[in-house]
Structures are given as C-alpha cells and as structure tokens.
Design goal:
- The protein has helices at about 10-15, 25-35, 50-55, 90-95, 100-105, 125-135, 145-150, 165-175, 205-215, 230-235, 245-250, 265-270, and strands at about 5-10, 40, 65, 70-75, 80-85, 105-110, 115-120, 140-145, 155-160, 180-185, 195-200, 220-225, 240, 255.
- Helix content is about 35%, strand content about 25%.
- The chain has a six-stranded mixed sheet with strand order 8-7-6-9-11-10. The protein has a five-stranded parallel sheet with strand order 2-1-12-13-14.
- It is built from twelve helices and 14 strands.
- The protein has about 280 residues and is of the alpha/beta class.
- It folds into two domains: about 5-80 and about 205-270, Rossmann fold, CATH 3.40.50.1000; about 90-200, Hypothetical Protein, Haloacid Dehalogenase-like Hydrolase, Chain: A, domain 2.
C-alpha cells in the first residue's frame, strides 16, 4: 500500500449519487486504484450496517470510519473493529436531558457484534416515521416500549430526526454538555434535520488522524459536501469539496471538484500518482 497519502471520502452527497448509490464507474475506478496500492477509505455518519449494502462492491483494505468516527469497521465483513460507548453516567444524563427521544429518535446499542437501533413506535414524529418505514425490513430495527428501554446493552450513539426548528432546540440543549460530540445538519435526501450524539472525541477528523498515525501515512486528502465534514477538512493536508457541497465547506476547501453525480471523487483519484507499494 502506498503510505505517502491517505485518501478519505464522505459518502452521502460526495461519493454516492443523489439516489444513494455508487455508479459502476466509481466502483470500477476505485477498485482498480486500491489494487494498485491507493490508500482509500470512507468516513460517514452511517453505521456500517447501513453503508455496506451500498459499498460492498468496493474492495477497501483499510477500515472504514462509521458513525462519525465512533465505530471503525471492516467494509468486507461488517465486523466492528473498534467502537466507542457511552458511560453509565452519560447514559443517565441523556435519559434526563432528552425526554422527547422516544418520539423523534433512536439509540444505537451493541449486543456482541450486533448493533440494534432501539425506538419506541406509536407516537413518532413524521421524520422518524419516515425513517422507520424506510428500514421496515431491517432486522436491526428494535421496537421497545419506553425511554428507559431504548438504552439497552451497550449504547453508543443517539440519533434524533425532526423539523429544523425542533431539531435545533435539541441540538442547542445537547451541545452544552462536554461529555459527548454533537452534530446537527439537514438530511441529504429528505427535508428533515438530524441531531446525532456520540461519545466524546468521536469525530471523522479524529478518526482520520488516528488512522494516519497508526498506518504511518505521510499526509491526508479528504472529500466532502456537508457540515459534519468541516472538522475533517480542517485537519487535512488537502480538502476537496464536490460541486454540490455547501458553500461554507467550499470556502475552506483546497479546491472544488465536480459534482457527486459526475463521479468527481473517482475521477480526481485517477489523476493522482501512486507510489510503489510497500510490503
């Protein structure tokens, strides 16, 4: 593998097309490049369980960064390689802080190698109803009866979905606490906004830096389109926004490349040299 540069891309809105799929061109190009030694992976707010049905054709030798840095996983098998978890103290605070959680969110909880998404059916807001319907055939969606039951096993991630005004209020409340990381952004495909809470020091940026250090890469090049990519852009040696990215992200990018619908990341990677791979 070429250790000179680690390339990391966001998925939704960046590597994926507008219909949340990978084009055959992107799959073929990236697989050819990784076979030659390109060090490439992705960083996403998705769980690996959600990402793999889309990315399973990619042959990625490096771990993938999921849940905004809270979980490192093997894209080929879905195995969780590293995962961050909330402490008992943090769980108690979350339960008291978020009485609205049963109506508009779910908690990602680990039982062994499985990650379940616990939610309370019956009085869900429209955005959460839409999410549950979309994943109605997912065996990892776990209906429970109360806020208390949402935090079972080993909780590691809280997701809340609502309209912008209500989600913003939740975010402002949650971000006051130093115990965890909070993300707030509009959904790439729907009109709703998401608030995501994960354990402290779990961000895409910190996961990328950790991977850079562990594998001994010389520099980092990243790609993205949205708010939660900003920290990753700030720590990278080079950061490229796709043409459909938010203007705020374009303003801090090294440059703006083509749009996600144009296979922009794959086409950019094809222009980069690959040094002779090391044993």
């Amino acid at each position: 593998m070429d250790k000179s540069t680690l390339y990391v891309t966001d998925l939704d809105g960046t590597l994926l097309r507008g219909d949340a799929t990978l084009s055959p061109y992107t799959v073929a190009a990236i697989n050819k490049l990784t076979e030659k030694g390109l060090a490439f992976t992705y960083a996403t707010a998705r769980s690996v369980e959600s990402a793999r049905p889309i990315t399973e054709k990619l042959r990625l030798p490096l771990p993938v960064i999921t849940r905004n840095g809270a979980v490192l996983a093997d894209n080929a098998t879905g195995k969780h390689l590293e995962k961050a978890l909330f402490t008992e103290e943090e769980i108690a605070i979350l339960k008291g802080l978020l009485p609205e959680l049963p109506r508009c969110g779910f908690v990602s909880c680990f039982l062994g190698e499985d990650m379940f998404k616990a939610y309370v059916p019956g009085t869900l807001v429209a955005g959460m109803e839409k999410y549950v319907e979309f994943y109605r055939n997912d065996p990892m969606m776990k209906p429970v009866t109360s806020l208390e039951d949402m935090f079972f096993g080993r909780p590691g991630y809280v997701t809340m979905i609502d309209d912008r005004e209500k989600a913003a209020l939740i975010y402002e409340k949650a971000r006051q606490y130093p115990f965890w990381e909070c993300n707030f952004q509009k959904d790439t495909y729907w009109d709703e906004y998401w608030v995501e809470i994960c354990p402290r020091n779990c961000t895409k940026a910190k996961a990328v830096l950790k991977m850079k250090e562990q594998y001994g890469f010389g520099k980092v090049v990243v790609f993205g389109d949205s708010v939660n990519d900003m920290p990753m852009f700030r720590i990278a040696d080079e950061a490229y926004a796709v043409g459909n990215a938010l203007e705020d992200l374009k303003n801090i990018a090294t440059a703006v490349i083509g749009r996600n619908e144009e296979d922009a990341v794959a086409r950019f990677l094809e222009t980069r040299p690959i040094q002779e791979r090391e044993a």
